[in-house]
Amino acid sequence: MRVSRYFLPILRDDPKEAEIVSHRLMLRTGMIRQESAGIYSWLPLGFRVLKKIEQIVREEQNRAGAIEVLMPTIQSADLWRKSGRYDDYGAEMLRIKDRHERDMLYGPTNEEMITDIFRSGVQSYKDLPRSLYHIQWKFRDEIRPRFGVMRGREFLMKDGYSFDLSAEEGRHSYNKMFLAYLRTYKRMGLTAIPMRAETGPIGGDLSHEFLILADTGESEVFFDRGYLDMDWTTAKIDNDDVAGLQGAIDEFTSLYAATDEMHDAAEFETRVEAGRRVNGRGIEVGHIFFFGTKYSEPLGCVVQGRDGEPITIHSGSYGIGVSRLAGAIIEASHDENGIVWPEAVAPFKVGLINLKAGDATVDKACEDLYAKLEGAGVEVLYDDTEERAGAKFAVMDLIGLPWQLVVGPRGLADGMVELKNRKTGERESVSPEDAVTRLAGRK
Amino acid sequence: MRVSRYFLPILRDDPKEAEIVSHRLMLRTGMIRQESAGIYSWLPLGFRVLKKIEQIVREEQNRAGAIEVLMPTIQSADLWRKSGRYDDYGAEMLRIKDRHERDMLYGPTNEEMITDIFRSGVQSYKDLPRSLYHIQWKFRDEIRPRFGVMRGREFLMKDGYSFDLSAEEGRHSYNKMFLAYLRTYKRMGLTAIPMRAETGPIGGDLSHEFLILADTGESEVFFDRGYLDMDWTTAKIDNDDVAGLQGAIDEFTSLYAATDEMHDAAEFETRVEAGRRVNGRGIEVGHIFFFGTKYSEPLGCVVQGRDGEPITIHSGSYGIGVSRLAGAIIEASHDENGIVWPEAVAPFKVGLINLKAGDATVDKACEDLYAKLEGAGVEVLYDDTEERAGAKFAVMDLIGLPWQLVVGPRGLADGMVELKNRKTGERESVSPEDAVTRLAGRK
């Protein structure tokens, strides 16, 4: 993409309304724009990040055997009355009357609807187990939305639901999602720690939150340093090996970890030796629940067992805040000059900077690099404008693409261009050919 | 995907509420499920089709130089009051009050918001031209929603917006979108005819609808048979060649074509000789508008010209009904046995039918074919269940995958499997190796 044809409304100054760094940087880089309190448009740069996050979430859901569907944003109030949550949910639920004065609502979550869909689509024990998920906009009418996309009113969430014949099988489905979540965050360059959690309005008695560590995080967290050394990615875990998976999950949850809400200072001191106690900050980026028959019972989600007997389905639900992750990743990865994107979610991999647009030699070298990189499948944002070099550098640092490729007349005279690593700040002088080889190789 | 692990709730009987064939087939095949009047869930099979349509739309928008963003579903009423459309829009607009009693609405379209986004992001004539688009759920509170996703209340739409410095340049942007639309429909296997249209609540004085031909279409259409012989795909058109593109669009709109609303019987008879007059039925699948300064004026969308003078932006808007297309394609492509998917939008390319699940030889041959096809990037729905053959055939015909690959003990004894073309009904006996080669080759 050429900057001269892109829509990249960078703000010169820090927006006053932004209290936290991700909100400030998302506004400044023109990733998002506030339309109403807690409601944002995703501008081109932000949209690309959102899509990358969404795609990683999707791939790991599919890998765990979950099947994608898409439920509507607007729901009828009737189902929520059946489950008893219509009145429970309070003012956070955006209630709507349609032109026929029917009670509708903008879905804050989908336990009722998916249970009803599943109920009407299956008859027999043979149709289980299944996990269904969707990635859809939700609305929660927060009384004081703030922190940008970290606590918005309209937000994109992946919510998945498992359906099993027994509590034991349900636990296995829960474990599969647990593992899928760890893999999802890892792919985004995040260190996520699972913590036992309250179940709140979703219900049930087994629940974990996943928190990523960020100095600017909203929650205080207490955990055993051992979590920082665990590497789930190297563990060979077979999703279908029930005992093996349970063992792995038991290991991943064996050390102490709690948010301030669940923290028990006495237990922390007993279980964790002093040198291993970490007291830091974290951001919740996922929450999973196993609630058994809480929704299947009132909604009549029953199948016929092997001998004809009725079996009430056991379920769990599994949420990841997709739009929230865009902010959370920035909280976890930025410096004084701007965002530092992990490669997997960066809007572009490379920022190509033309130091002398209009100079035939430099233009030609840039066009050539641009074409070769794009041809090799590398996503490039090419700054071909006539801005001065200093401004171009500042913008590239601000928007945080992993690599900057700087092309100017002086370097070219020696047949060289400069490759800068945004994260480490390292710069190297390389030939244009080497630059392409290296950037195309590091997929 | 294995049927034994999929969620494919096929209905045995025709749903009574469905008046038109696409609605009936989408419900029967378990593509969608009605949640409220005019509000649907997209179940796994339908979701796959929706995503394929969306992706084709996206690719052709990007190819035309449009940039993707994502605006929220919920909008503040304030912007609509500025443009004067808040009161104009009537009861079709879903009006909402949030917990602070602020007037909000579920966006039926986005002219106001995108104009405001663009206004706040640009200063100078150098920032134009630009086209921005998004693919987002919309809501129009139809008084009597019907025909399934063809006239729903919550629907997925691609809406794009162009921003230019003059009416002439705006016309060029309009023409680029015109061409992008023709390419989009063609890729989905549809014959679309552009027809001059009323501008309705969007406004402006230049507008075209795109209608695809389907015997079951909602609108009566009158057109010159010559349209059926025009092939836009072979035309070499350079998007940046202003006169050349205008010439092509003039040609594509030179023949008579009108919906009943705009039809002029006398003109039809004068301009079209008797043997070339076609009176058929069609379905609207896109609508484009050029409305100049209608929104930029009240919303103050002005940039600084080359000499510092203020220039009010000229705009157009361009809509494609993404979810509606799923229904429209079925209306245009089905037979008495079910859907006949064009390959580009089919949920899977191949249905692999195991005629004797449980038989070691047949299972092995199927597993082998399944692995090889998936390995070659072919999307396969593998019916590995113990259903009887007749039921499997009926379901595969009903869901309309382009190819069926039938594997049974008798054929295998001769080293053969059967390849069936869903559209033509042709069957061929081929070796498993040939089947893979042919299906992997026909991308």
From TrEMBL, chains A, B:
<dbReference type="InterPro" id="IPR045864">
    <property type="entry name" value="aa-tRNA-synth_II/BPL/LPL"/>
</dbReference>
<keyword id="KW-0547">Nucleotide-binding</keyword>
<dbReference type="InterPro" id="IPR044140">
    <property type="entry name" value="ProRS_anticodon_short"/>
</dbReference>
<dbReference type="GO" id="GO:0006433">
    <property type="term" value="P:prolyl-tRNA aminoacylation"/>
</dbReference>
<dbReference type="Pfam" id="PF00587">
    <property type="entry name" value="tRNA-synt_2b"/>
</dbReference>
<dbReference type="InterPro" id="IPR036621">
    <property type="entry name" value="Anticodon-bd_dom_sf"/>
</dbReference>
<keyword id="KW-0436">Ligase</keyword>
<comment type="similarity">
    <text>Belongs to the class-II aminoacyl-tRNA synthetase family. ProS type 2 subfamily.</text>
</comment>
<keyword id="KW-0963">Cytoplasm</keyword>
<dbReference type="InterPro" id="IPR002314">
    <property type="entry name" value="aa-tRNA-synt_IIb"/>
</dbReference>
<dbReference type="InterPro" id="IPR023716">
    <property type="entry name" value="Prolyl-tRNA_ligase_IIa_type2"/>
</dbReference>
<dbReference type="InterPro" id="IPR004500">
    <property type="entry name" value="Pro-tRNA-synth_IIa_bac-type"/>
</dbReference>
<protein>
    <recommendedName>
        <fullName>Proline--tRNA ligase</fullName>
        <ecNumber>6.1.1.15</ecNumber>
    </recommendedName>
</protein>
<dbReference type="Pfam" id="PF03129">
    <property type="entry name" value="HGTP_anticodon"/>
</dbReference>
<dbReference type="InterPro" id="IPR004154">
    <property type="entry name" value="Anticodon-bd"/>
</dbReference>
<dbReference type="InterPro" id="IPR033730">
    <property type="entry name" value="ProRS_core_prok"/>
</dbReference>
<dbReference type="GO" id="GO:0005524">
    <property type="term" value="F:ATP binding"/>
</dbReference>
<keyword id="KW-0067">ATP-binding</keyword>
<dbReference type="GO" id="GO:0005829">
    <property type="term" value="C:cytosol"/>
</dbReference>
<comment type="function">
    <text>Catalyzes the attachment of proline to tRNA(Pro) in a two-step reaction: proline is first activated by ATP to form Pro-AMP and then transferred to the acceptor end of tRNA(Pro).</text>
</comment>
<feature type="region of interest" description="Disordered">
    <location>
        <begin position="422"/>
        <end position="443"/>
    </location>
</feature>
<feature type="domain" description="Aminoacyl-transfer RNA synthetases class-II family profile">
    <location>
        <begin position="38"/>
        <end position="342"/>
    </location>
</feature>
<dbReference type="InterPro" id="IPR006195">
    <property type="entry name" value="aa-tRNA-synth_II"/>
</dbReference>
<dbReference type="InterPro" id="IPR050062">
    <property type="entry name" value="Pro-tRNA_synthetase"/>
</dbReference>
<comment type="subunit">
    <text>Homodimer.</text>
</comment>
<dbReference type="InterPro" id="IPR002316">
    <property type="entry name" value="Pro-tRNA-ligase_IIa"/>
</dbReference>
<dbReference type="GO" id="GO:0004827">
    <property type="term" value="F:proline-tRNA ligase activity"/>
</dbReference>
<keyword id="KW-0030">Aminoacyl-tRNA synthetase</keyword>
<keyword id="KW-0648">Protein biosynthesis</keyword>
